[in-house]
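Exercise 3.2. Students should predict the tertiary structure of the chain below and write it as structure tokens, then compare their answer with the key that follows.

Predict this chain's 3D structure.
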Amino acid sequence: MTKRRRIIQADKIIRNVLHAFCLLMFLQLKGHNANNPVLLYSTTYDIRLANTSKLPRIDTVIKGLEQGSAVEFLYRKKLICWSDQNAELIQCAKYNETQTDKMKIVSEGIITPTGMAIDWYTGNIYWTDSETNRIEVISIDKKCRRVLFWTEVDLARAIAVVPKDGLMFWTDWGEVPKIERAGMNADPATRKVIVNKNIMWPNGITVDYKNNLIYWVDAKLHFVDVMDFNGNNRNRVIREGLVYPYALTFFDEKLYWTDWNTLYIYTWDIMTNGPIKELINGSKTDIPVDIKVFDEQRQTPVTDHPCNNNKCSHLCLLSPNEPGYVCSCPTGVRLKEDNMTCYNGFQKFLIVAQRSVILKISLDSPDYTPFTVPVKDLKNALTVDFDPKTEFIYWADRLSKTISRARLDGAEQSVVVHVTGTPDSIAIDPYARNIYWTDPVEDTITMARLDGSYKKIIIHEELYEPRAIALHPEAGWMFWSDWNQKYPKIERANLDGTNRTLLISEKVIWPNGIALDTVNNKLYWCDARTHKIEVCNMDGTERRELHNTDILRIFGLTLLGQHLYWTDTQRRTLDRIDKDTGLDRVCMVEQMANMMGMKAVQLGADSGSSRCSDNNGGCSHICFNRPDDYVCSCPLGLELDNTRKNCIEPEAFLIYSRKNVIGRISIENEHNDAVLPIKEIKEVSALAVHVSGSKIYWSDTKLKTIYRCSIDGSNIEKILEGLGQVEGLAIDWSAQNIYWTDTATQRIEVARLDGSSRRALIWQGLKKPKSIVLDPRRGYMYWSELGSKSIKRASMDGSGVTTLLEQVGRAHALAIDAERRTLYWAALDPPALERAHTDGTGRVPLTNDVTMPYALTVYADRLFWGDWNTGLIESVNKVDGSDRRRVHGALDYIGVLVAWHRARSPPNQCGVDNGGCEHLCLPTPGDFRCACPAHARLRPDNLTCADPEEFLLYATKNTVGRVMVANGECNDATVPVTGLKNIRTIEYDPINKHLYWMDEDSHSIKRVSITYSSTSTSDSTVVVSELTRPYHMVLDVIGRTLYWTCWDSDSINATSIDGNSTGVIMQGDNMIPRLLAFHQTKRILFWSDVGLGAIMRADVNGGRTELARAVNVTALAADTTTLYWAVGRQILAVDFDGTNRRIVWQGGVTSTLAAYGGALYLCGGERSLMRLPLHRRDAPAAPVPHVARITAAVAVRKVARDHPCYGRTCGAGACGVGGACGCGVTCTRDACPRRHFRCEPSKQCVPMEWKCDGQADCPDGSDESSCDACSAGLRCADGKCAAALGGCDAGAPCETALPDAFRCDERLCLAPRLLCDGKRHCEDGSDEAPAACGYAQKDHNAIPTGKQWTALGVCAAVGGACAVAAAGWTVLRRRRRAPPLRALPLVKPLAVRVPPSLHSSDATGSASASDSLCGRYPRPTVNPPPSPATASGGRRRRPPRAVTRPPPPTPASTDHADSETERAPAPPPSPAPLLY
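Answer key:
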């Protein structure tokens, strides 16, 4: 060829190349054409657009997805819509290439939206939810949403719509895989299964709108098929080459799909029959999920369609039938008769409490879709009710102890009632505007007005665990169930609590819900234990079983129309049956947890009326309808006037007690008596009132406590405990003090009204003090004594005791008229009522015509008394006993009677700022005196108090007390700490006023601050925790260190109480320390040692010395220079230097010992606390009065603030005698416990078995060093010596198997570390065998990863390359190949030492080492999910999912089915990341 020809030829080639290049550039600049569409696809975290002509360029248009799933678009509005499975919502955004503004379309009631399709005619979005098993639609503009299909939808996946024909298609990969077709209007007649054969995992589906064809992909059978809209003419499009296809779309005779295994997006040309081409390569962080072709041709605009210019009020849905559309309503709302307009919300529906939410379920449509009522702050709502007049929902929250209400749309939410106990079930009387509730904590049934006012307890007696309640307002009845295991029952009463009737008490165990048929007067109830629903007449007759099939844990029950509805908390279902036959059962809602109480509602129904409907029956406060009449009532604190309509606040009334009841009786108006709803009462022995504080105080002889509550019985408080037998109470309302008599301890005591600053006033010379009254204005107190049959008087500070009246008989009750200076008493032997002046003169009998006057009070000009025998309350003129009247009857065994009236004397000097006193202000005749709590000392200013410095502190199992020897002071006093249980030993820090105690229940040492007010252990702090078996402790007050021992330890431990240092302070060979004692100033620690069989001593830095040989020591105590201990029936002593050992006392077993005030205090066996003087050797041990058997005692001494260690911060156990700081717990301890090895240099102790085992356990690995020495006498096979087998590199000879050894044969043992190390140590090579290595050999053949191209494909590729010459290399993307797979090396399992706590199984079952090391596959499921998002971790109402295991295919799996049927092979694990 000539040079010219060659130039011309080259020029042509160059021109062709340039033309081709320009054409390609033009196509790129143009954006796309029919052969190069734009792909819209979702990934895990974003939405992307990819122009197939510009690849590999990809634009991210939507960011910030949590778990991207389905994607769609509305081209005419430039909208891109997508679903997010983790966020549980569907969103749309307008795409204008500059910004995207997201708008929420669906945000509630959606869980796993896997498929989505948009009807571009109407702008409706259709989607599938494989978790709720529903297909739904929503209009983008109006946000009107409707459930289309909910039955026989197992696990719907992809969905496609054909607006021109009004059809939609969807795939379902459930237990019965299929493809279905239906009208877009959800007409059941149009629904049809078009594919159910040769199908396993139907995934993506797409439509060829031009040719009316459906393409779909099967991820299990690896094919793509095509068919017509009827499922006919089915043909195979792609037969091979598919791996795990997921989403599929069609455009211009090409298919595009995503693959979850290869993470690619592929294409297939239908016209050329392939081949499969790779377009886009994803990754594990941007997995391609759903895909669509973003082109106007996929949504051909149509202006004239059936829904155009429709008159539908809400939704217009296209239909395959004439006239081509139907009007539809939001889910649960009915269409009116004009077939165009929807009702304004539900007409018949259920309200369901679901603990943290409240649901509405419409009964107007058959889908029974639950809707959440948007209310806030629900914690544990169990029951609901509905007020038909105002259309408010009411619910009770057990956790927040409130009853609240809100509108049906959640508006106007407010708390109506704050409940003292726990509200359980509620019921509304809409006619009387009252609400009732049961309280299983207070054991009451209470009512209030619907706005929460006028609260009143209706029933409180013989209620054990009231549960459900239901009202029949028209008939005036209420019904309730009682869940008590001993006395389960169902009762009925009038709405005011009267005429109580037992209806059902036999063959009932756990009666839960109650429902009433008020038309037919039927009572329905459900029993969670017998698994039945039963019915009877409202009088309890004609009882019969209604339904008993497949009921597990029935809870809520309600009735509407012909149907009875119930919830089952174990089956997680809501069902209904026919109320008459018990048949026609329908499961309305399933797989929904925590459905509890519910209420069926029909709006606009005739609500009826009662006698209380009109103007509340004329009642000023509360109206109760009853079967035959109605009554007005008042809340506690008010009384009905003589009209019986209006409530008034009385000037005075009587409060009485009888055994376990406190009640009130009207003085001015009849029939106004009431019993206070106080649950805690066991046996009332005394009663007093504080009018200005609106409080009632009472003592309980069985509980040995004093309580107080509000005048209506609420706000109960325990103010004093640890008492004897309190028989009299009196209130100094001016000084805010309470006085009481105690016949068990023979004392009169006083405290502040809150129980603080308790002090004994008189503790000598009393003989069974009984009733007590006060004259605060004049500073006197009066009391009767049953032992001396007299009445005595003293100043209110306890001074000046005088006998005022003698020979008064056994005066059980006193009353005082302070204004008239007159004292009244009711006496027995003989029975009489008498009076006298407060100075003891002018004694006058008022009446002798009484049988057993036991209670007495005075008000105005009347004297009232209660008779123990007759049960009568009567009154007479208080001056001469005339004008005797009967006030009340039938109150037998009345114990105390008190008049509540507002008239009080002027305050005394203590009434202003407590008289300036810090604690107690005690009136005296003409003056007052400040006083301190028991054992505290009044300072020279006579106003403030100083704490005691030296005393004996003791503890019983649940109380703490104090003994102090002082002149003019009662020796014993109770320390006000509540909530103590199982105290083993105690200590006290006088610097910070902290009580320390060993708690056996919590295995810890705790502390709490002690004040003169009551302190609860709920405010305590844990000082040392996780003590397996705490034994004893002692406190170094000056050194701020707590020393302690445990049953299972062989050391003495120390903890700094002002810091956080803890460690071992004393440890040695054979040491087993038990009891401890400490001398504060000499800095000496003493202990009894079981291992050494001796009493030992040491300074805080060590240097132990044996003081005496002693075994079985039961108690230990140190005095100034002497140590005491108890062995057997003796108490022995020795001086601190070990000399002068002697026997101090013999007389019984001693378990508690303390030295205080020149005496030993000891207790043991069943004896109470004894005191043994030390100054006389022959002095006997005498009981300490009023102190019962104790469990611990400690002598508290004055703090030596001049000691050099005081104020030093040396650390735990580190301050010596001269104040020098030692090492304390940081000292080097040479010894380790028996059978332990000491690490260097950390000094940590590890079990000896861990030495030379091939695994480092010491921080520095010292347990694996020096393993070549024959210290253990072990000679290795190679002749070397080692401490243990782990130190032998060649193993060791063994006649029997060594611990943790691998035995080659009868002669050689190997350490575990030598197994599978690539070297043969056994002659037969068994140490390298698969069985020894912990895995089975597998065939690791290389798997080819390249694809095989057909000849046609290769030729086409070559031809294309030749056509574009060199330019093709610059514009065509090279096909990227996956790197070849490499077999992972098998890792030998390590011998891991697992702590004992790690061997226990967790909530999901015990862990298996073999399962985790052998790489086993999870058990297969019938139809695993083809969606990566469905494998994205645990979802609501599903159990947690394994990383490589897909979710269960059926709802039954959520209940952890016990057995599984034969299953199909499992698919490869989903590549989608698990987003927990």
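Discussion points: The CA atoms of residues 225 and 237 lie 5 Å apart. The first strand starts at residue 38 and ends at 42.
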